[in-house]
Design goal:
This protein is an all-alpha fold. It is built from 4 helices and no strands. Helix 3 packs antiparallel against helix 4. The longest helix is centred in the middle third of the chain and has 33 residues. The radius of gyration is 28 Å and the shape is elongated.
Amino acid sequence: MPKKYNTPKRSVVVKTRMTDEEYADFTERAKFCGVSQSEFIRQAIENAIIKPVITVSPVNEKLLSTVGQLIAQLGKIGGNLNQIARFLNEHGTPYNSLSNEVRTAIADLADLKFEILRKVGDSVGDVQTLKL
């Protein structure tokens, strides 16, 4: 009677080419772990942390430079708005409604800055890796 396994039915076959050295290393590792080559690959995929390689072309470098300048300008505008808000707060009642509008503008500016960074990150790479 054939042996039955309690595993999900798998129908997709993945093929790859290896050098003799890569294949020897692969089979040795699978054997050392006491698993089949298929199981070794499945576990490797499940536990792998592979960082994408981002190739930055001259166009992307120019884009990143431009975005960096834009973010710097947004930061300066935000600083100016903070100074205006501080002035309006210090001078009280006649400027209270204007002060709230400036605060809203500061929040909107911050949202815009992070939206720009997010969109650039989506199209170029991880936002956290951008040094702007």
